[in-house]
């Protein structure tokens, strides 16, 4: 297969994989309420907890993580070109945000981004998870923990991957994540954001 064609098919395949919304799939299989109709309306693991099913939330989290990880790992079998790998990370992430199978209305992408970063560098994923755990443990806000981990991610990327292409990728992804969390940011500023463990 020509390299130019492969460089198009890999990000396209990543986008299609990212478009699989595990929150919606798990809810349908488990015969739970559509997560888009409750709480924040976000089809993600946090909102799945509001359905009262930890197992459904866990499967959603793992599914969203794995699609990011597998997209990058499979790409790595064909090429180690940072431009293609970065494009695949963004493609699988955007697929989660704007899934073709569900009217282009998806989740916020934190788990999928983390899964993609895990395939790029386990140390990068570990740094982000530890950041999330510390902030969430101290302040009890999942969204704030995600935002702080996201804000620090470009620094982690530059420190661990040392490639301008990945840095640009990280900055773009971080900006999109902040935009997707704009409602959470407003709620945090107003003091109305839901804390971890609250119903």
Q: Explain this structure to me?
A:
This protein is an all-alpha fold and 199 residues long. The protein has one domain. Helix content is 72%, strand content 0%. It has helices at residues 3-18, 22-29, 45-49, 54-78, 82-97, 110-120, 122-139, 142-160, 164-180, 182-190. α4 runs antiparallel to α5 (82-97). The mean pLDDT is 91.
Number of strands: 0
Oligomer: single chain
Largest sheet: none
What is the helix/strand order?
HHHHHHHHHH
Low confidence ranges: none
Question: How many structural domains does the protein architecture include?
Answer: 1
Could you tell me the mean pLDDT? 91
Query: How far apart are the termini?
Result: 52 Å
* Percent helix range: over 70%
**Proportion of residues in extended strands:** under 5%
Which value, in Å, is the CA radius of gyration? 16 Å
The number of distinct helices, counting runs of at least 4 residues, comes to 10
Shape: globular
Derived structural class: mainly alpha
Concise summary:
By secondary structure, this protein is mostly helical. It has helices spanning 3-18, 22-29, 45-49, 54-78, 82-97, 110-120, 122-139, 142-160, 164-180, 182-190.
Helices and strands, with pairings:
Blueprint: H1 3-18, H2 22-29, H3 45-49, H4 54-78, H5 82-97, H6 110-120, H7 122-139, H8 142-160, H9 164-180, H10 182-190
Helix pairs in contact: 1-4, 1-5, 2-4, 4-5, 4-6, 5-6, 5-9, 6-7, 7-8, 8-9
């Amino acid at each position: 297969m020509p390299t130019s064609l492969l460089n198009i098919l890999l990000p396209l395949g990543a986008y299609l994989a990212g478009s699989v919304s595990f929150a919606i799939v798990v809810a349908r299989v488990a015969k739970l309420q559509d997560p888009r109709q409750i709480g924040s309306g976000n089809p993600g693991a946090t909102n799945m907890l509001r359905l009262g099913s930890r197992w459904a939330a866990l499967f959603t989290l793992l599914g969203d993580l794995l699609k990011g990880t597998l997209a990058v790992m499979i790409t790595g079998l064909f090429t180690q070109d940072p431009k293609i790998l970065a494009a695949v990370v963004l493609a699988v992430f955007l697929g989660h945000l704007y899934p073709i199978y569900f009217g282009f209305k998806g989740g916020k992408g934190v788990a999928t981004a983390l899964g993609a970063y895990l395939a790029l560098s386990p140390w990068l994923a570990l740094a982000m998870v530890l950041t999330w755990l510390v902030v969430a443990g101290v302040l009890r806000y999942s969204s704030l923990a995600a935002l702080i981990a996201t804000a620090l991610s470009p620094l982690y990327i530059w420190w661990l991957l040392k490639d301008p292409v990945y840095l640009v990728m990280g900055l773009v992804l971080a900006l999109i994540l902040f935009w997707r969390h704009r409602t959470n940011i407003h709620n945090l500023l107003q003091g109305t954001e839901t804390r971890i463990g609250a119903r």
